[in-house]
Specification:
5-stranded antiparallel β-sheet, 527 residues, Putative D-alanyl-D-alanine carboxypeptidase, 3 domains, Beta-lactamase, hydrolase, 5-stranded mixed β-sheet, alpha/beta, Peptidase_S13, D-tyrosyl-trna(Tyr) Deacylase, Chain: A
Length: 527
């Protein structure tokens, strides 16, 4: 998805004055600082003209004692974006357990005679956000191993463990075709090892100059219907290929061109009706394993009488939160929310799951002013939370038996390994924050947040929350990062680092991963 940032010039003197006035106003109700040097340094950073007319909330704690070392608008409400995943993941670890697994079942109705099942196969989703195409192939192999080669009925797609609402409250309609906004169902299939659920790869391979490019899908069973073509242009002309799924259908409009002789272009597109999609992939796997299903795929109603035939278990929850936090996988966060609702509240829907998450926060003393949560990933702009509440959560998490697994799942600043650095892989490199700061980012248009832990030069562990909302001009990310660097560096960071000019916002797409399917984290994505 392309997005444009609308920038405007701000006279420096006026901007500094505005930011200074904002700082004075904001600090009027803030608690007295516990660290005068830190306060002076962070105030300098927060007077940056990039924050003029924006809202900034910051809280820094001694992570061991809970002492507030710095606070700026700690009780104000902010849009959390993907930092909300810290709330969802900690609640899931606490309420479901680090060893929790999801189970997907194949069940049968009717009776088997010799090699024929007179009845249906039911593919029953257990909410697994990480079910892969190869896992469905393995299940198909298990069915074939029972001796069944013919199914007289159908494959029934059973996603009824969760409610039938596929998209979260307040999710943007124009995000729907893109991989970070998958439809949520208890039965869904992921297309790669990073668990990009409910997506298909549309692969565009150039032909000869003047010919239409070849268009295929991965997996082949993806129910896409293509409208239009992508032309093959002259060598060296680059790619302008457009792939756009129409709302409410699996019709995909194709446009533009790819250069002759160039590598294939791949677009990741969400799929309408995840349960049916997963079941079609399963039916394809059955056919490859010699099992013929005579009546195709149909939705289950959840009340079918059936017997277990084969099953697949997911990795543990402690393992699944790694891609959820490192690369900000929204689908995993939403599955955890609905699963919490199902297991703890009896209903697999967002409202029940969120109520259970709020009960977890309250039971652990994470209180404060009324906040609002409607989903698990932070995709919704209805979500609102305070820096103080986030900071309290960071402190509480340290006392939990699952803390080490959760801490290690947070992105690590400046580490180039994808499943270590995650969304922070290209940020704060060459500073004291590199391989020091463990933190979750959260961004969407006008929002740039960061919260987590930094180890100070004296060995103290600091918990910090930085939330910047409602900016419309130049990205404030260098300021956000400079705060984390200051915590990792100590007072020696001044004055050079405090100008926050040595930390530049990454260019291109997807934080550290320009050119991949990850959208622009500074504009409209939610990472």
């Amino acid at each position: 998805m392309s997005a444009r940032l609308y920038r405007r010039s701000i006279p420096l003197a006026a901007a500094v004055l505005a930011a200074s006035l904002l700082a004075v106003s904001a600090q009027a109700d803030d608690p007295a600082p516990a660290d005068a040097t830190l306060t002076a340094d962070l105030n300098t950073l927060l007077s940056d003209p990039r924050l003029a007319n924006a809202q900034a909330g910051v809280e820094v704690l001694d992570a061991t004692t809970g002492e507030v070392l710095y606070a700026r608008q700690p009780q104000a409400l902010f849009t959390p974006a993907s930092t909300l995943k810290t709330v969802t993941s900690t609640a899931a670890l606490d309420l479901l357990g680090a060893d929790y697994r999801f189970t997907t079942e194949v069940r049968s109705t009717g009776t088997t005679y010799n090699d024929t099942l007179v009845g249906d196969l039911v593919l029953r989703g257990g909410g697994d956000p990480s079910l892969l195409v190869q896992d469905l192939d393995e299940l198909a192999s298990k069915v074939a191993a029972t001796g069944i080669s013919t199914v007289t009925g159908r494959v029934l797609a059973d996603g009824t463990r969760y409610d039938s609402t596929p998209l979260g409250p307040g999710w943007a309609w124009d995000d729907e075709p893109y991989s970070y906004s998958p439809q949520i169902s208890a039965l869904t299939v992921a297309n790669d090892a990073e668990y990009m659920m409910d997506t298909a790869q549309v692969v565009i391979t150039p032909g000869a100059v003047g010919e239409a490019a070849k268009v295929t899908t991965v997996p082949a069973e993806a129910p896409m219907k293509f409208v239009g073509t992508v032309a093959t242009g002259a060598a060296g002309t680059g790619s302008t290929a457009g792939v756009d799924r129409r709302r409410g259908s699996n019709d995909v409009s194709l446009s533009g061109s790819v250069a002759a002789g160039s590598a294939p272009v791949t677009a990741w597109v969400t799929v309408e009706d995840p349960s049916t999609y997963a079941s079609k992939v399963f039916a394809g796997a059955l056919a490859r394993h010699g099992v013929k299903v005579q009546r195709g795929v149909q939705a289950a109603n959840g009340s079918e009488t059936s017997q277990p035939l084969a099953s697949h278990q997911s990795k543990t929850l402690a393992e699944l939160i790694v891609p959820m936090l490192k690369i900000s996988n929204n689908g995993i966060a939403e599955h955890l929310t609905k699963e919490i609702g199902k297991v703890k509240g009896g209903r697999g829907d967002w409202a029940t799951g969120v109520n259970q998450v709020n009960a977890f926060l309250k039971a652990n003393g994470v209180n404060g002013p009324t906040t609002r949560q409607v989903d698990g990933s932070g995709l919704s702009r209805y979500d609102l939370i305070t820096p103080a509440k986030m900071a309290d959560l960071l402190k509480v998490a340290q006392s939990k038996p699952w803390f080490d697994a959760w801490y290690n799942a947070l992105p690590v600043a400046g580490n180039p390994q994808r499943m270590v650095g995650g969304t922070l892989a290209a940020r704060m490199r060459g500073t004291k924050a590199e391989n020091n700061v463990h933190a979750k980012s959260g961004s969407m248009s006008g929002v740039d947040n960061l919260l987590g832990y930094a180890t100070a030069p004296d060995g103290r562990k600091l918990a910090f929350v930085v939330m910047v909302n409602n900016y419309a001009g130049t990205s404030p990310r260098p300021v956000v990062d400079a705060i984390a660097v200051r915590l990792a560096t100590g007072p020696a960071a001044a004055p050079a680092q405090l100008k926050s000019n040595s930390l530049v916002a990454p260019s291109g797409s997807g934080d550290a991963y320009a050119g991949t399917r990850w959208e622009d984290c500074e504009t409209l994505s939610h990472c």
